[in-house]
Amino acid sequence: MLKYKILAVIIVIVYFLQTFFVSFGGVGADSLSYFGIAADLPAPKTNLFPLGYPVLLRLAHFFSEDYFWASKILNALFTIIILFFSYYKKFYFRETVLVFAGKTFYFVFFNAMSEGPFIFSMYFLLFFLHQIFSENKNLYINAFGASMMMICMFFFRYSGVYIYLSIVLFVILFFFKLKEKTYFKALILFIIISGLGIGSYLSLNYFHFGSFTGEGLRGKAGDHSFLQLIRNLFGLVNAVDPFIAIKPISSSFGSIAFQFVVFVIDLFIFRYMLQYYKKAKETSLFSFHILLWIMAGFYGIALLVSGWFQQIEEMGVRLMAASNFCLFFSFLIFYFKNNSSDKMIWRISCFFFVFLVLYGLKDPGYYLENKNKIEPQMSKFKDKTYLYNDEKNSITATTYYFPIINKSFKYNHTNKQKGKLKEGIAGTLNPKIKWIKEDTVQDKSKVLYTSQLKLN
């Protein structure tokens, strides 16, 4: 157990420090939107995103007076609380630590995004559901706790409704088996309370903003080509993979071929996991694991279908975070239950954790240094209302050289581009300024162009 305690401490330290050594600091376009909503509180101007994460950011901002540091405080708290709770409550501590060593937790607790509190809430949702399935006492208390976590998940991300619907689907599919169980009424109570909470929030959205989830603000879905469908299917299947998350933006032949190789690896991983899943029938928590797999599958497919009708990003680690968490957590529970030695999973997890950290530093930079360069310039642009990246055509390519084969290649890292870096930093320093995708504002004097900011 000592090695897991040591790894847990290392994870907390690495998660906190790594964003300082990448150029963009874990701040993306959606981060700026969340910062902007937080800055507008208590009078939000949009319901494009739910208010949960902006509320937390605003609370953390009270102590830090900086939204970058607010996001860092939150991610650190999410990580520490989960690990401490798991250890203190003896709730699958080894499994929890190894989940943190995987790609999903690394990604969501590295960046300033709503997936952090979303997965944080989901962890405790699974805890309460686990207690419902495994104990005959405090069923209604656990059902209430699970309901609060479910409502929080929706409060952080609208896609939380798919987790709720997956649980409803589970109860419907296994109704006749479940109705004989002592925990059946607790599950029904959970469905009722969670449904009322989610429904109430949707109603408030509709009466205040005129839409349930800002559906009119996202725009129509983008690329419906066969190639994009294939990329999305690859991303969906990759939810079974605990470690490999490399997905090139390019749709070149080489990129698709690489993704196909990863897809084949994912299929072998799924087959391997399935062998352990079949052994679940011998355990008292069989229903709990069936629920996890239904949650993972329904959530992933629902997002894939949603992407066909509205503008959301491509299927990848971010969108598949909940599905990957459910599958990996379920697998780890079975693995430790059916194996006397943890050498293989420990070594693989440690190897890929190191790989994820090094891969994240493949193109190192210094966010705080960049931020310190931009910060004194922002006082000149207090009157600006909009922020636009007008340096999209100015491309900075990173060259990678492989001495063994004497070959090199260039890659354009999205988050390393100067315009993108300036946009992220400026939007963090002044979240009241709204970033825009297109330069369509007629009064140009209201627009801060990234070319007006200097990084050198």
From TrEMBL:
Q: Which residue ranges run through the membrane?
A: 6-27, 67-85, 105-127, 162-179, 186-204, 256-274, 286-309, 315-337, 344-361
Keywords carried by this UniProt record: Membrane, Transmembrane, Transmembrane helix
Does the record carry Membrane as a key word? yes
Asked if the Swiss-Prot or TrEMBL record annotates the protein with the keyword Transmembrane helix, the reply is yes
Identification of the protein by name: Dolichyl-phosphate-mannose-protein mannosyltransferase
What organism is the protein native to?
Chryseobacterium taeanense
